[in-house]
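User: I'll paste a sequence; please echo it back and then give the predicted structure.

Assistant: Echoing your sequence first, then the prediction.
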Amino acid sequence: MSASFYQRCRAELQRYEAEKAFPEGYTGLNKEIMEIQESAREQLGPTLRLSEAALNNLKEGQIALTGQSVPIPVSVFRPAALKLAAAFSRVAGQPFPVEKIFALPGSSSDDWHTLAEDLLAGRLDLAELAEGSGYNAETIAYFLHSLLVPFYEHQSEPYRQMLMDKEIAWNRGFCPVCGSPARYGVYYGEKGFRKLYCGLCRTEWPFPRHMCPHCENPEMASIRSFTIGGDQAHAAEVCDHCQSYLKATDERQLRRECIAAVEDLATPGIDLTAAGQGLSRPA
């Protein structure tokens, strides 16, 4: 992911900051998270070469990284974790329990891929990590996902364009590279085609418009959407079959190209409304 990507993200956050009232510290924290991610990504070096094993996985309908571990060197991971913990601590006004994370099994090794695999597989006890810290399990999960982004985006870079160009077909609602649930949706082009976005490795891929990405329910009658405050460019797409939702931006309504990573951050009101309706967001 190039430096220009992060520069564009920060510029878009500033645009939304001027347009909307965010909670105190919200925009500043997310800008700082992106700066930490950008620094970590730069330390990982140039884009990797295409992996034949990953390409074969995709061609066979499997997640690209199946059978592979994402390298997470401690020399990059630990300083990034400390900076991120300091940012969270400043905003929350209380120390973030980063030492608990450093004490997890496998922390003495030079590679933290086990932590990532445990988190994505649901094997980490987030409630235990949060206990007594003043933070909840959701915030711990957000911290860890934010920390892992640069390592996963580095791994996914060789495959992104070919997926968007449909050189390799992928018609599932989860990420073709790392397997994470879709985080966001974007309607683009004159015809409003839909692409999904992975919040962990930043991969985007085309996906049918009238299908739930979480349970892959194709029944249009059970899929609805809602907007808030008269904002027609941003919506929640709700599946009444699995009671999940996906936030989405329509670039035709927005009247500019958007960055899904920023659109997600710019729409906290939709999440609050969805939570009030008892809806879940698998990502």
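Residues 191 and 252 are 9 Å apart (CA to CA). The radius of gyration is 19 Å.
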